[in-house]
Specification:
The structure holds 2 protein chains of 2 kinds. Chain A is of the alpha/beta class. Helix content of chain A is 35%, strand content 24%. Chain B is of the alpha/beta class. Chain B has 3 domains: 124 residues, Rossmann fold (3-Layer(aba) Sandwich), CATH 3.40.50; 65 residues; 160 residues, 3-Layer(aba) Sandwich (Rossmann fold), CATH 3.40.50. Classes of the chains: A alpha/beta, B alpha/beta.
Chain lengths: 324, 365
């Protein structure tokens, strides 16, 4: 059997998905990135290989997420694509006719508007992280609640308290204040969800026409409290797809299928998981820009460089065909 | 007297040319870098926008090279920039720097006000020479703008990655090297020939994006994280709503030079959406977006430094223009954060969106 591998290296999680030739997910893996993208990609590949038992041959690889170039170099990806495109492709395959995608990840949140199956508009959070998963993560930690329990607790609330949502710092002080006043935890959590939704809709969804059907994905979609808060704010149902947390990787796998159409794959095999990759870096002293150049080394050999503005370092390496 | 002025893209080339022609000693600050930003951020009010912080950093770095007189543009109106020269001067004084300050402002009544300040810098030189010097600087700005425009055309079409930018640097050196007005036309011809020699694939389909927004962010590659080059390498031909020579002509010469590109048209186009001067380039941003839509551009990107009021006004109007004229618009806000990944993701996604739109549009047509 043949399959396509999609890898999404995000700020918080690293996800791998393997789809069959028909685009249906055979295996998905969700790992926390923990600031170690290379290790996590390798660990994910190992787990994937173990789960597949050599029954499926990978004939295409796509990478996405903020670590997409890194993952692409390590695995020899056939396509490296930004997360907006991959999320849109995955959602419109999982739910044909989808018109709005709400996506909240670890450090960014985005809204994607689709019309007739193509991306018509999108927005991402710009200078503020108040409307993202990391914010919920931090507040949960403050309240000593596991993020996994956040949603079910918030659902128990009867009267959500009002919490300022514009700024994470103000939200936190508001929350502490409400705690000291004696409100119970579920009501505070539900209030947090509503604050986040408000901020998201005002900040990211500003001026966008949110039409049904609406899909809610990204790690935060696991939180039932958030889904409920979105439904309350929008006044219509919000769908959370079964693989909501690996949609980026799924989209990357689908794009890999397109990219390897009538073409061999550049996949370097699962054994890259055992090779020695290191990320090094140095500050170039060629000009006052002092660019931070990043080098990816495989067993001491430089296989990729980026980060220089002028191309002095990245152009030295033989330029591969552009795939992103 | 050793004169320094802040960086804004290639502006230094023109001012250096002008002042050196007038025998004024010039200190060009090191190009804006992380160090510049660090210095600026450390000593600026937190709520000021990024241009102030970078200006301040420029001046501090130039002081190490012996500069003692600041020449800076001023302005009036709702944009805070008009007051930046004085604020920066005060901060520098508090830090112990001894700088003299000359603010070149759009004259309130007569161009003579501007000439007077230039006379202060240039000392006992004939008016004839001073005016020739100003014209020389202006012509250099025009030359640089011409080369930049050529680079915008070449980047998405170059057959060898990075070729355009290498040649552009060499071509700019030709302009920089010219020390007197007589030499400029010849040097410009040489530079243009160099740019023309870049090997291009003229039949490659490219997307066209108009860049609108605040002048400093548009012109200074350090502030906009080299957006023109990034878009160029993604196969996008860009155009800016503001070029230095046009701005100088309108704001400092009060439109003395005729028949050049001007923001007048953009301002007329803005009337339907915004009938009032909002400071900075807010009106031009609105008007240029309309113009780009009418000229068949595939998309528009607005850029502003965080907290820029005039552009925030424009930003809130752009969605309406976008839906009425059917042109996708994206806004990018720049600040201290230097994470390139976020910017590249947004640009890639925007370019993908435009490419898909164009594809399906062509199928329908």
């Amino acid at each position: 059997m043949y399959g396509y591998l999609g890898i999404d290296v995000g700020s918080v999680s690293t996800n791998l998905v393997l789809t069959g030739e028909d685009g249906i997910i055979k295996q998905s893996i969700y790992l926390r990135t923990q600031g170690k993208p290379i290790e996590m990609v390798q660990q994910g590949l190992k787990q994937m290989q173990a789960a597949l038992l050599d029954k499926i041959k990978v004939i295409g690889v796509g990478t996405t997420g903020s670590g997409r170039h890194l993952a692409g170099v390590i695995t020899g990806a056939d396509i490296i694509k930004n997360e907006i495109t991959t999320h849109a492709i995955a959602a419109s395959n999982v739910m044909p006719g989808v018109q709005t995608i709400l996506e909240i990840g670890g450090q960014d949140s985005k809204i994607i508007i689709l019309r007739n199956g193509i991306v018509a508009d999108f927005a991402m959070n710009t200078v503020c992280a108040a409307g993202t998963g990391s914010f919920l993560d931090q507040q949960a930690a403050r309240l000593n609640i596991k993020i996994e329990e956040f949603g079910s607790l918030a659902m128990q609330s009867s009267v959500p308290v009002r919490i300022a949502g514009r700024c994470a710092v103000f939200a936190e002080s508001d929350m502490i204040h409400k705690q000291q006043m004696g409100y119970n935890v579920p009501d505070i959590l539900a209030g947090l969800c509503e604050a986040l939704v408000r901020n998201y809709l005002n900040n990211v969804g500003k001026g966008k026409e949110i039409l049904q059907p609406v899909v809610f994905q990204g790690g935060v979609a696991a939180n039932a409290g958030m889904k409920a808060a979105f439904e309350r704010a929008l006044g219509h149902p919000v769908h959370v797809p079964p693989y909501f947390d690996v949609m980026g990787a799924l989209g990357a796998a689908m794009l890999a299928r397109e990219a390897t159409n009538r073409k061999g794959t550049g996949f370097r095999g699962f054994d890259v998981a055992d090779r020695d990759f290191k990320a090094g870096g140095f500050a170039c002293d060629g000009c006052p820009n002092v660019c931070e150049v990043v080098e990816i080394l495989e067993s001491g050999q430089v296989i990729a460089r980026w980060g220089d503005r002028c191309g002095r370092w990245s152009n030295v390496l033989e330029r591969h065909e552009k795939i992103s | 007297m050793k004169v320094v002025y802040p960086h804004m893209g290639h502006m230094w080339i023109c001012i250096k040319g002008m002042l050196e022609y007038l025998n004024v000693e010039v200190v060009v600050p090191p190009p804006s870098s992380k160090k510049t930003l660090l210095l600026g951020v450390k000593h600026s009010p937190e709520f000021a926008c990024m241009p102030l912080k970078l200006n301040l950093g420029n001046f501090m770095e130039a002081a190490e090279l012996g500069a003692d007189t600041i020449v800076m543009a001023g302005g009036c109106g709702p944009c805070r920039f008009g007051y930046y020269a004085h604020v920066e001067h005060a901060i520098l004084r508090d830090l112990g720097y001894r700088y003299e300050l000359v603010v070149l402002e759009p004259p309130q009544k007569h161009i003579g006000e501007l000439l007077g300040k230039i006379k202060h810098i240039t000392g006992q030189q004939s008016w004839r020479r001073v005016i020739n010097g100003i014209r020389f600087g202006y012509n250099k700005a025009e030359a640089v703008d011409k080369l930049e425009r050529m680079a915008h055309y070449c980047r998405p079409r170059e057959t060898k990655a990075g070729a355009t930018d290498r040649v552009l640097q060499d071509a700019l050196k030709e302009i920089i090297a010219v020390s007197a007005p007589e030499g400029l036309p010849v040097a410009l011809n040489r530079a243009v020939d160099m740019m023309n020699a870049v090997s291009l694939d003229k039949h490659r389909p490219v997307l066209r994006i108009g860049l609108v927004g605040e002048i400093y962010t548009l012109l200074e590659p350090f502030a906009n994280q080299d957006i023109e080059r990034k878009l160029g390498s993604m196969g996008v031909e860009v155009d800016r709503s503001i070029y230095l020579s046009e701005w100088v002509n309108e704001h400092l010469f009060l439109g003395l030079v005729r028949n050049t590109g001007s923001s007048k048209l953009a301002k007329q186009k803005a009337v339907k959406y915004l009938r009032h001067f909002v400071g900075g380039h807010g009106l031009e941003t609105v008007g240029s977006t309309v113009l780009y839509a009418k000229q068949g551009y595939d998309g528009v990107i607005q850029m502003l430094p965080f907290t820029c009021m005039p552009e925030i006004v424009a930003q809130s109007i752009l969605p309406r223009i976008s839906s009425e004229l059917g042109i996708p618009v994206m806004t990018l806000i720049v600040d201290e954060q230097s994470g390139e990944a976020g910017l590249v993701t947004r640009l890639e996604a925007f370019v993908d969106l435009l490419a898909r739109r164009k594809q399906t549009g062509e199928v329908l047509a």
